[in-house]
Amino acid sequence: MKAAVIEALGRVPVYTDFPEPEAHDGAVIATVEASALTNLTRGLVAGTHYGSSGLSLPGVAGVDGVARLADGRRVYGTAVTPYGMMAERTLLAPGRIVELPDGIDPVLAAAAPNPGVSAWVSLQHAAQVRPEHHVLVLGATGVTGSLAVQLAKSEFGVERVVAVGRDADRLDWLRGLGADTIRLGHDDLAARVAAAHRDRPFDVVIDYLWGEPAEQVLAALGNQGLGAVAHATQFIQVGTMAGPTINLAGGILRSAAVTLRGVGLGSVPMDVLRQANQEFLPRLFAMLADGQLQLATQRQPLADVEKVWTQREPSGTRVVFTP
């Protein structure tokens, strides 16, 4: 069969032949319909993700996606290594299959789970967001950040969400959903966050950027003066699109009741991930099918994987490969 084959970490996958999957240990063979090019998949293949060492090489790229089972059911599932979802056929892990509702676009269904589950776990498990919370989403114009804003408003009923990002059009759209906005590279991020924090302290920051933007936000949360009243703020670190490290002065943490924690494959308990798959994913697919959530996608043929892999996708858009 044809597949996007990872021959070595740090190299772009090659569209070539790969052995057909054989069912074993409860895993089932399925015909792939769509698989998203996520930051997780990019990082694993590049060898820069902490999970890269667990890959079997040569192997097939694509952690998850949409496939059709032998009985005709269309499902979302996770592939069993060395097989991936960027192939004509794959091997799906038992117990990690979610049946899709009728009428949902398989490309949309493939694009949503990775950012959707990440956003849900950040809001539900890590931050335990409540309607009365004041929430800031740093990197809100990206795929996951925009879903976090939408879910915070629609699923968690958060009255006040501040969306921070670069894309002006995407910020206008988020403003239409009820979010306040700050534009990176245009507005004074530190000053705007500090002013908003003084007006109504932030309870939660969901960060998809890290790097300099995170430094500015953390500095704005602290340094509020000797008369500042302590207010607990949870800073949830999820992505590092603006850089892998930050410079953090100790005085910032002493001057603000900020708790730093991360959300990722190594920091979220398995029972939380199971809850996300069993309870949230069906809800996510239903919201997508009904148009309650918006997610921009760009369909690409799997045969073009080598060319598309190195291209920059439009802001807030998820590339999805179809065999």
From TrEMBL:
It holds the Pfam family ADH_zinc_N. Residues 4-320 form the Enoyl reductase (ER) domain. It comes from the Bacteria. GO terms for molecular function: oxidoreductase activity. InterPro entries: ADH-like_C, ER, GroES-like_sf, NAD(P)-bd_dom_sf, Zn-ADH-like_protein. PANTHER family: SHORT-CHAIN DEHYDROGENASE/REDUCTASE, ZINC-CONTAINING ALCOHOL DEHYDROGENASE. This is Zinc-binding alcohol dehydrogenase family protein. The lineage of its organism: Bacteria, Bacillati, Actinomycetota, Actinomycetes, Mycobacteriales.
